[in-house]
Design brief:
By secondary structure, this protein is of the alpha/beta class. The protein contains eleven helices and 14 strands. The chain has a seven-stranded mixed β-barrel with strand order 1-3-2-4-5-6-7. Strands 10-9-8-11-12-13-14 form a seven-stranded mixed β-sheet, with helices on both faces. The radius of gyration is 25 Å and the shape is elongated.
Length: 382
């Protein structure tokens, strides 16, 4: 059967098409579809040199692609023959399918501080990017390794790089105009001046995706200091279940430490061991089995839905998906099979259960209000 004839086409943004100063364009050419995809300037270092742009009234050369500046934009030629161009508005086109569901201009003002850029944090970051969140601080001290790939949003081309740098590239590949600060360290060492200049109380959420509870305790304290929201997404052994906890500043809610302390009495959330692989033999009675990607992603996706609800809590036109139906502390079950989860699966009635009735309270030290919010009020009074 004869294939249909495909017309060569150049995809280019309206800003670049109207530019009178550019001399070279970068991107990708796809031979089967005959599409030249011109990358925005922010991503030119990831593309191939597609062609050159010649001044007005120039004669097009016989190369695979060249452009000639005209009064109404750029005329493109391939091997000397004029070809069509399709002009798009980068930001509007990327987020056009979100209109009516998420307000793009509102989401562009939102800020996410992601503490831990592993399997959980990388998924959170990319989904927020797709939702239109524009501003990020990425915090993680680790590099991407081969054993990360089966659960991480990054791949082989990112192995050896810091997770924060690899994830930054992925975000920019979705939204080239995103503003991203990276920090290759632990949250406790994140400079205060970085947070001072970044945080905007009503638009910022701290997302705890690290491998231990102490990081979540510390992160929630910081979020309270900056009068911002906080959410933690964590997992139990083999990711047979996960837990989600959120705190909204000023809503008289227990903070993470108030509600869970170190969490030892409430869950068996796994602590990370970065040097133990899932195929290694049992060591000192502990075998590190963090779960497969689909289990991690299921729980994380519920957390992401909550993040979007929290970021839009003051948006009158937004309809919450989960925030009004889930409590502050939520457990999510991937499987109720005891061979995977052990005795702890008894707390779940069926696979894929999402709890809606768990309650957490203030600690004895706090009384009827989180001690860290009390401290904020005292400092404000001073």
């Amino acid at each position: 059967m004869k294939k249909p004839t495909i017309e060569k086409t150049v995809f280019i943004s309206d800003v670049q098409s109207n530019s009178k100063t550019q001399s070279k364009i970068y991107g990708r050419y796809f031979n089967e579809s005959k599409i030249f995809n011109v990358f925005p300037p922010e991503l030119k270092d990831r593309g191939d040199l597609l062609g050159i742009i010649l001044p007005t009234n120039s004669i097009p050369n016989k190369s695979k692609l060249c452009g000639v500046i005209a009064d109404d934009g750029i005329n493109f030629y391939s091997y000397g023959k004029r070809i069509r161009s399709e002009i798009y508005s980068l930001y509007q086109n990327i987020f056009s399918r979100n209109k009516g569901i998420l307000e793009s201009d509102v989401m562009a003002q939102k800020r996410a501080i992601i503490l831990g850029c592993g399997s959980v944090g990388s998924l959170v970051a990319l989904e927020l990017a797709r939702a239109g969140v524009k501003n990020y601080i990425l915090v993680d001290a680790d590099i991407v390794e081969y054993h990360n790939i089966c659960r991480h949003q990054c791949g082989i081309e990112d192995v050896g790089d810091y997770k924060v740098y690899a994830l930054k590239r992925k975000i920019l590949n979705i939204n080239p105009s995103a503003n991203i600060i990276t920090f290759e360290g632990i949250v406790q060492n994140l400079p205060k001046e970085t947070l001072d200049s970044f945080c905007d109380a009503g638009n910022t959420i701290f997302v705890g995706c690290a491998d231990n509870r102490m990081a979540d305790v510390y992160t929630n304290r910081i979020s309270i200091y900056y009068k911002s929201s906080f959410i933690s997404i964590g997992f139990w052994e083999r990711a047979f279940a996960g837990e989600i906890f959120y705190h909204l500043y000023g809503k008289n809610m227990p903070c993470y430490e108030c509600a869970l302390g170190d969490g030892s009495k409430l869950s068996v959330r796994a602590e990370a061991n970065h040097h133990v692989y899932s195929n290694q033999e049992e060591t000192e009675g502990i075998k590190f089995e963090p779960g497969i990607s689909v289990d991690i992603n299921f729980v994380t996706s519920i957390g992401i839905k909550l993040i979007l609800d929290i970021l839009n809590i003051n948006n009158d036109g937004y309809i919450p998906r989960l925030l009004n139906g889930l409590t502050q502390y939520t457990l999510v079950c991937n499987t109720s099979n005891a061979e995977i989860g052990g005795e702890m699966v008894d707390i779940f009635s069926y696979p894929l259960q999402v709890t809606t009735s768990l309650k957490v309270g203030f600690s004895k030290k706090c009384g009827d209000k989180c001690k860290y919010e009390k401290k904020q009020e005292i400092n404000k009074g001073d």
